[in-house]
Write a structure and sequence with these properties.
Elements (H helix, E strand, L loop, with lengths): L5 E5 L6 H9 L4 E5 L10 H9 L13 H14 L6 E5 L7 H4 L4 E6 L2 H4 L3 H6 L7 H13 L6 E5 H6 L1 H12 L3 H5 L36 E5 L3 H14 L8 H12 L9 H4 E6 L4 H19 L8
Parallel strand pairs: 1-3, 1-4, 2-3, 4-5
Antiparallel strand pairs: 6-7
Helix pairs in contact: 7-11, 7-12
Length: 313
Amino acid sequence: MENSEIIFIIGAHKTATSTLVGMLNCHPEIFLLYENELYQPHISRHAKRFLAQYPDARFLFRSSEDLQTLYSQLQEFLKSKGYPYKYVGDKLPGLNANFHVTLNAFKVIFSVRDIRTWLGKDLVVRKYGMKQDVIPAAIDYSICFLKSFKLSQVFHVRMEDLISQNEMLLKELGKFLSLDLNRDIQNWWKKIPITDKNNPKASDPWWETHDSSLRQPKENDTVTQMSPHPFWEEILPVFDKYYQNLRGGFSPSEIDQDITTLLHLKKYSPLSPQQAFTHRESHSISQSEREKSNKNIIKKVLKALGLARTAIL
């Protein structure tokens, strides 16, 4: 198996990485795991689901082996089960600072969204600890994006293009993979749930808690307006330089120089969301997020009323 037959999807949280897994898994020649991380010493909750269906696949999860060996063996294992996929791969959670080195030999689909809306999303604010300061996360997010241009085989997906130019995106992504994606992936949001329980793609029904991937994309879920601040004046031109030129060739020295510029922006820290934005609104919430939000509201109300859980049972 050649490196070119292994695909990794990477990107920060809330950049449509889950949707990309679902989209590509609609194609009969592609199999992507969902955050299984075969190379990790621990077994993730998603990997446990895969192993529940294929207990004889435990040998695939070994931290002592390199990525090429592990994912090549995954392809051979699936072939032995009657599923000879052309491509296999994984969605890796979050962004590792050294991904541009560890994944350079493979095909990588890097998902990104405009930093203005990424920083403004409530879930991102909470998950990346930005309630008091958005600057460290903004710098890390931008640097990881710039590092992705050092990858030898990378296809960048702007979340905004997935929403507004889905057909064009599938055509370009198909060229990257040398596959006709439009035929099998049209209306992918209707096809993501795998109903054939014997299919290895059904082993981990991750979409049950990511129902935003099951909806036709129509609009961005976050709207923001930045406050006048020198931090924005310096970081946005660097970010936009790459964001508006996804296919543009940037030399390693140019990328390193721009990364150095970003690192110097720590001098503006701290900058709270209240100071960073004049307006910030997430106007579309997936069902799973809404349910969690409702539960949190109920907990806060009960706490305010001084009611213990046992008192209402």
